[in-house]
Amino acid sequence: MSESSSGVNTLSGSFPKSHSSQCSDRGVTRTPLFVDHSPDSGLVSTPLPSNRFRFVSWHRLEHCDVTGDQLTCPRVREGPSEEELFQREGDDCCLERGRRRRREEEGQRWDERLQENWENCLELNLSYQDLGDPFQKENFLRILRRLIRVEKLQLVDNSLTNLSSVRLPRCRILNLHRNHLVCLRQLPKLPAVEHLCLSENAIGSLGGLGTLENSPLRSLNLTHNPVTFTQDYRAHVFSCLPKLEVLDGIPKLPEDSLPTRLQFPETTRMCNIL
Asked: Of the four listed, 67, 112, 239, 258, which is most buried by Cβ atoms within 10 Å?
């Protein structure tokens, strides 16, 4: 386990666990947070603010005793600015007030981003972020672009659709289980990746697999993707990735090296399961 200077708790060697919290109405200012009390969880019971803080990043929570190193999956979401929120509501008076406050907080926001210090993270778990607003997705991608030293990264169940603008130069282990990727070209740049999990996405073809050809990729997981039903699926993958040792949890078999039509056809043929 390693920790960045921002207090982000990071995990290695296992997939993240999902933690749920009880939601409350606007009238309730504090609700208990359900957390894992297992000996290895490192978490404690802490009352957290609920609905009124839904757009607040984890490191900006006020009136709360919880610290970053007590969070398994720290929230990095950044909600809409007050100006944008007031524009949605159509309140001109509040809009002007939001503009003044935004100008006052610009310097403070820049200082907070420097304090996050994502550049020094080596192992990071940013799963289950519930990125429901475009502002949150934009902020999330901004953080991913700053992970220039991360080696192990968990991004499970974040509804991610396109990470092609992200480069992770030192990432060796990347877990993108249960997202919304439909093409391998939507992956980030991964020149050093060794273990890549893409299970439970919507990847329908092997187009773009060649971008991983020069990487030291040893294991790849594409289970529960439509592409696994294409003809000669395993043979195609191993032919494009000569360094690959394990595919979908199964080591390379002798029949995976049999000569096949190695060129990708213009239209992908699917196997019919009766």
From this structure: 239
